[in-house]
Write a structure and sequence with these properties.
Blueprint: E1 3-7, E2 10-12, E3 18-25, E4 33-39, E5 46-51, E6 58-60, E7 68-73, E8 78-83, E9 92-99, E10 111-112, E11 116-120
Parallel strand pairs: 2-11
Antiparallel strand pairs: 1-3, 3-8, 4-5, 4-9, 5-6, 7-8, 9-10, 9-11
């Protein structure tokens, strides 16, 4: 059964860092684009970053450019999201998702993890 599991969320102070992990089971991530998305209370789910399956191309939402870095380790079947210089407005549930085609649009993804909470607060 195809499954994605996020981990690494938590409470961090403004300016701090977290690294989220998205581990896949039941399938090989090599052939899938992976996206990271987030959803804050009362807001729609939005794309944060994504990475292609082919050449490792990466894309970022303007709000996280220069602060977040997406990477993949196919040997570990895992994708990471390194988040630096975190701000209170980054607070949300973060999800990873997989699909054949790369996109920052949530509706384009078929397979989703359960999410991990990130809270940025002093």
């Amino acid at each position: 059964q195809l499954q994605l599991v996020e981990s690494g969320g938590g409470l961090v102070q403004p300016g701090g860092s977290l690294r989220l992990s998205c581990a896949a089971s039941g399938f090989t991530l090599d052939y899938y684009a992976i996206g990271w998305f987030r959803q804050a209370p009362g807001k729609e789910r939005e794309g944060v970053s994504c990475i292609s399956s082919s050449d490792g191309s990466t894309y970022y939402a303007d709000s996280v450019k220069g602060r977040f870095t997406i990477s993949r380790d196919n040997a570990k079947n895992t994708v990471y999201l390194q988040m630096n210089s975190l701000k209170p407005e980054d607070t949300a549930v973060y999800y990873c998702a997989a699909d054949r085609l790369i996109s920052l649009l949530p509706g384009e993804y078929d397979y989703w993890g359960q999410g991990t909470q990130v809270t940025v607060s002093s």
